[in-house]
From TrEMBL, chains A, B:
Membership in a protein family: Belongs to the acetyl-CoA hydrolase/transferase family.
Stretches assigned to the Acetyl-CoA hydrolase/transferase N-terminal domain: 15-221
Keyword Transmembrane: no
The name this protein goes by in its record: Acetyl-CoA hydrolase/transferase family protein
Pfam families linked to this entry: AcetylCoA_hyd_C, AcetylCoA_hydro
Keyword set, alphabetical order: Hydrolase, Transferase
Organism listed in the record: Nocardioides pocheonensis
Record-annotated active site: 293 (5-glutamyl coenzyme a thioester intermediate)
Length: 502, 502
């Protein structure tokens, strides 16, 4: 009996990753654990990729539909993509190898709102789930599973799959028991009830995942780290963005539009987001709570200093330094962190009820406040929409942030027309670049254009944007609600493709 | 004492529309009742417009910010727009005169999700509300107000305005008492609780609106009809759309993805929506419920035949024939209809919990499933997003419907790239035209394109769309997730502007 698999039934299923991978067939839909490089299976994907390579070497097809929580890691998404073994992928990806295959047209990618992924799977939108491959920390004597460093869609995959493969990862601290809150009262309409969460710090479910032991066809023991997320130190640009944002929150509090301890914070993943968290840590704000997707290093800092008193999320997303710090002080974090299913962490009902302050990055925004979070030059997907739509649409207040230029100034993040729209003009409250902050609340499209160009565009592009608006405004005197020159609206992007500079 | 104003305090405030209009000043924000031409004030707007005309004749400015539930009528929005008295307008408009002023750049229009309009007003996004002008059916002895044929944002306007003007409309049937459900437990975060609605037929609030009588500066008695909505008989095109949709719902039930009595229906306003309702009436479906914005004639038909057992909405939107039918049989409808505030009728929490089937019209969709509901050729606003985003994003299943062409074939409703995006590719489940139905669930963008072109595009445009996709797909081999030719993506719209034909 393994120290981590103390369930008598499940301990009889302990086997190798290779034997487990044998149970996955060409054409299967496979639901894997994993969110922001945390809690994904470490061994079965490699064994499965080896089978795919072997099959392809013999001229047989071996490709699966791969569903996850969100992004995984090179040793999951990456290795399967290298084996050309992914036919369909949902709901989110950030792996560079897989991204290349999506953009080459090899992989069908369904880029979905994360709050939609589990429920729409129950509804039958994505087809049948054949196999679940889920990392856990331990299987208890009664068969309950201690979840790992992310919860994601694990509840749903375990529940819906015909066959379940568990990976029990001895590298993950056994002390993770108690960090999770898995809500088991979700139902299909017309049987749904209110989700009884009114405070981000509250527990509404169980600390454990459940699985029908009869479905568990393999248990694989591993000892391997999560993918490390690499953060860079905040640079001047991201610090300027953070400073504008924190200053604006202070103004909102002063204006009486927000409590002094703010409202629950959601923060996207990345360097700009981390800089914003650092900016909050350096601000007078205190006693904050987070209702977010991912706990990254910046949130750990805030928990350490006490600026943040609680974080609700669905996953960790830490650097190796962050992981060490978390592990060394794990008892300090227990009771201050809860990981929930992504259907709960991102639920519109809860985001709206709690009045979340949503802070997310973007690729570009147009002068009317439409935001592109997913596509480079209209066609190539970067990562995916993730939870940004769940949070932004339902937030009390939302921010979209980006440096005002990219590629050394060759690309403007403020463009005449977004080359792809993920967040519409109806959904975007505040844009922030290092140049400044544009508060768009209550403004008409033309008023937004003036403000965005003035406050957020890089000076190098400001005149050209103003020139565009002015000419568009004159061009069609009976169509001045959202003035556009349709033969020029996307010309900045086309020029970049043609010349390498907008 | 008036028969309809039996509240002693309020009866002392009875006055003329002209005297009431004197209490509204240049620069005020005015919150008026009204939704889909129902329940808007009938007398004060005209008196106010006369004051505006007089002021303008003397060279003084007189313009207001006008906030409503949604659309009103020629004798409210229209008459104020004709007086050039509207400076800012939110959250929805369908009046042709006002539309012209918005598109000429005279009026600042904030086109907002209807579920956002009241809460964001409480948050302070739109500024201070000076005056409310709200039509009611009666003021009871205890000061409670019997709401009229729409509830809209009336609860919020009455609560938030400094001064309140009531119009008591004797034309509206006194028997409307009991048709309303006004929820008074909404709060600002962090004090929000779950909204306790789990069944569209349930009552969670009061039949009455409340107002602080000290704020009521005028009570004006009127006797005037609501604006009549004119519906045309379903033509072949809308019948074909309805037939595809009803057939699809039958398939979904047969596949076990939906109960036999479906899930709560939301139906947009208009002739296509009415045709769909007629199609449902002619189908084997029975025992249905609606959780929607507007009760239009088609819903009355369904209630009459028993196909629909209950309708929850925020407003009526009836033809004159429909109004007569409703009035003659008002007792029959009582207990089968509830009108709620639009913050409740459209609430994401409820739409998602109940699992609504959302059916809305559109202006155009692109081949990747992005939907434009608001803008003609990218710049001129038509009406507004209304509740379509509230319902579509959170629906169990959503449909967007349109004839495949407009203007006698000169415009294709299926285009390479939408000239404005209100519902993103992440949010759109099913497109329907008279040509057929495209089920986009679980498809990647390129797979959607194939299906939309095949099933929904008009044959006259199909080859050109296929040609576009194929050339876009070849143009950038590393950007094939959502293939576009950015210098051609909007050329169909530009060609229409240049030549009158796409």
């Amino acid at each position: 009996m393994s120290a981590r698999v103390t369930c008598p039934v499940l301990s009889t299923r302990i086997t190798t990753a290779e034997a487990a991978a044998e149970l996955i067939r060409h054409g299967d839909n496979v639901g894997m654990s994993g969110f922001t490089g945390a809690g994904y299976p470490k061994a079965v994907p490699a064994a499965l990729a080896a089978r795919m390579h072997a099959a392809h070497a013999h001229g047989s097809e071996f490709r699966i539909g791969l569903w996850t929580g969100a992004s995984t890691a090179p040793d999951a998404d990456g290795i399967l993509a290298e084996a050309h073994g992914i036919a369909r992928r949902m709901p989110y990806n950030s792996d560079p190898v897989l991204r290349r295959e999506i953009n080459s047209g090899e992989v069908e990618y369904v880029d979905a709102h994360l709050s939609h992924s589990a429920p729409q799977m129950w509804f039958g939108f994505f087809g049948h789930l054949d196999v679940a491959v889920v990392e856990v920390v331990a299987a208890l004597p009664d068969g309950l599973l201690v979840p790992s460093t992310s919860v994601g869609n694990n509840k749903t995959w375990l529940d819906q799959a015909d066959k379940v493969i568990l990976e029990v990862n001895h590298w993950q601290p056994r002390e993770l028991e108690g960090f999770h809150d898995v809500y088991y009262k979700a139902a299909l309409p017309p049987h749904r009830l209110p989700i009884p969460l009114t405070d981000p710090t509250a527990r509404i479910g169980d600390p454990y995942l459940r699985v029908d032991p009869r479905k568990v066809v393999a248990v694989v023991e591993t000892r391997a780290p999560d993918r490390n997320t690499v953060f860079t130190e905040p640079d001047d640009t991201s610090q300027a963005i953070a400073s504008h944002l924190v200053h604006f929150l202070q103004q909102e509090v002063a204006a009486g539009r927000m409590p002094a301890d703010l409202l629950p914070l959601q923060s996207g993943v990345g360097n700009v987001a981390n800089a914003v968290l650092a900016g909050l840590d350096a601000s007078p704000f205190t006693n904050l709570v987070a209702f977010t997707e991912v706990i990254q290093d910046g949130m750990l800092d805030l928990l350490d200093t006490g600026t943040l008193r609680f974080a609700s999320a669905t996953s960790f997303g830490l650097s190796s330094e962050g992981v060490s710090r978390f592990m060394e002080n794990i008892d300090h974090y227990k009771g201050r962190v809860l990981l929930r299913s992504e259907e709960i962490s991102n639920h519109p009902e809860l985001v709206r009820r709690l009045g979340v302050i949503a802070m997310n990055g973007m690729i570009e925004a147009d002068i009317y406040g439409n935001v592109n979070s997913t596509h480079v030059m209209g066609s190539a997907v970067m990562n995916g929409i993730g939870g940004s739509g769940d949070f932004a649409r339902n937030a009390f207040l939302n921010f979209f942030m980006s440096p005002s230029t990219a590629k050394g100034g060759a690309i403007s993040a403020i463009v005449p027309m977004a080359s792809h729209v993920d967040h519409t003009e109806h959904d975007v409250h505040v844009l922030v670049t290092e140049q400044g902050l544009a508060d768009l609340r209550g403004l008409s499209p033309r008023a937004r254009a003036t403000r965005i160009i003035e406050r957020c565009a890089h000076p190098e592009y400001r005149d050209a944007l103003t020139d565009y608006v002015e000419r568009a405004d004159r061009a069609r005197p009976t169509a001045r609600h959202t003035p556009h020159l349709l033969d020029e609206a996307l010309s900045w992007h086309q020029r970049y493709l043609d010349t390498g500079h907008m």
